[in-house]
Amino acid sequence: MRLRSRILPAIFIFFSLSFILNAQEAEVPVTDTETEALQAEAETAETDEEYVAEDDGTFFPLIAEYTDRPEVEAWRKYYLSSEKRVKLLHDILEYAMEYRLFVRKTVQDRQVPGELEYLPVVESGYKTSAKSKSGALGMWQFMENSVRPFLTLNEYVDERLDPWRSTEGGLSKLQDNYKVFNDWLLAIGAYNCGVGAMSKAIRRGESRDFWYLAENGFLSSQTKEYVPKLIAIADLALNSDYYEIDLPDHSEEFEVLATERDGIFDYVQVQKPYSISEIARNMRIDERHLKRLNPALTKGFTPPATKYNIRVPLGMKTTCEQVISELKPIEFPFQYKVVQGDSLWSISRRFGVTVQAICDTNGIQENAILKIGKILYIPSK
């Protein structure tokens, strides 16, 4: 790799851009035995890159190793061939500043490759409510079947819509992929196509080389383009001066964020259903702002019977706690008292809702033993 003209401080510069959302393909099932075999093979396999972060926290192994590959060069030329594309790249990076700074800090804290900072751009253009045709949702484009155990998804909460929680979940999923394959190209490719599909490609191709699998048709066209696109965009953002393009840096803002000891939010734990709008009004803050800080609450209020941490502006924890102590919880239209002979199944049939919905609403497991007299909140159909 030729040395670019710009050397970054101990922080990450963001890349981005994707005109079409790249949703993760449905996971191909992979058994525990197959996963264990892959992990054992990965531990003994020779890899092109070593998962060791540099001392300053900045770690860009993919650019260092693969930036001059023809597949990467093709994507780089694609973006550089049009002022409109560069402008769109600039706008995505600028628009996403608040979330990118958090992703950058999380990537640095976890000491994973800096290129992962740019994955939400390839996935969603950093749009927090992006939804693909296949149903992938949020900045990190989680499918419903790939949410657990990384994020919460139930009747009242969808953390795919939360840019902060989904960042933690997305990076955890990528780190899990790396544990399976011991190779970041394969791990990132598996984020797109699924661990099962990538494992199948490795078995069929009898190779652990991503480029070989891509060139010989063992990977889907989407996954084949996914990795070089990521590297190309990361390189453009990291070395925008070298390529003589105008991309936002936001290094100064990140330095402030990186030195914040108290975090960027406060949290208040509740265990009853409270309206976010009502909390905001009583705190005398903009309702839209509080909802923006808590986008996972899809119905506008906290879960009725499970603990939940409301995210509030830094410094307003005491105010929020005082407001909640004086606030009346939402009363659900349906409350049911368990009687002898009841089961979750029979109750779900009576009210025309699923067992899972009742469990999510009340914070219980499907195999829970119902005590006579227990009050269950019944969700709406």
Give the helix/strand layout:
Elements: H1 32-44, H2 61-66, H3 70-80, H4 83-95, H5 97-110, H6 119-124, H7 163-181, H8 184-193, H9 195-205, H10 210-215, H11 221-238, H12 251-258, E1 265-270, H13 276-283, H14 287-293, E2 308-313, H15 317-325, E3 335-337, H16 344-351, H17 355-362, E4 375-377
Antiparallel strand pairs: 1-2, 3-4
Short synopsis of the structure:
The chain has a two-stranded antiparallel sheet with strand order 1-2. It has a two-stranded antiparallel sheet with strand order 3-4. 46% of the residues lie in helices and 5% in strands. The chain has 381 residues and is mostly helical.
Span of the ends, CA to CA? 58 Å
Helix fraction bin? 40-55%
Order of secondary-structure elements: HHHHHHHHHHHHEHHEHEHHE
Q: With helices defined by DSSP (H or I, 4 residues minimum), what is the helix count? A: 17
Total beta strand runs: 4
Care to describe what's here?
A two-stranded antiparallel sheet has the order 1-2. 46% of the residues lie in helices and 5% in strands. It has 17 helices and 4 strands. With 381 residues, it is mainly α. Residues 5-30 and 44-57 have low confidence and may be disordered. α5 (97-110) runs parallel beside α7 and α13 (276-283) packs across α14 (287-293). It has helices spanning 32-44, 61-66, 70-80, 83-95, 97-110, 119-124, 163-181, 184-193, 195-205, 210-215, 221-238, 251-258, 276-283, 287-293, 317-325, 344-351, 355-362, and strands at residues 265-270, 308-313, 335-337, 375-377.
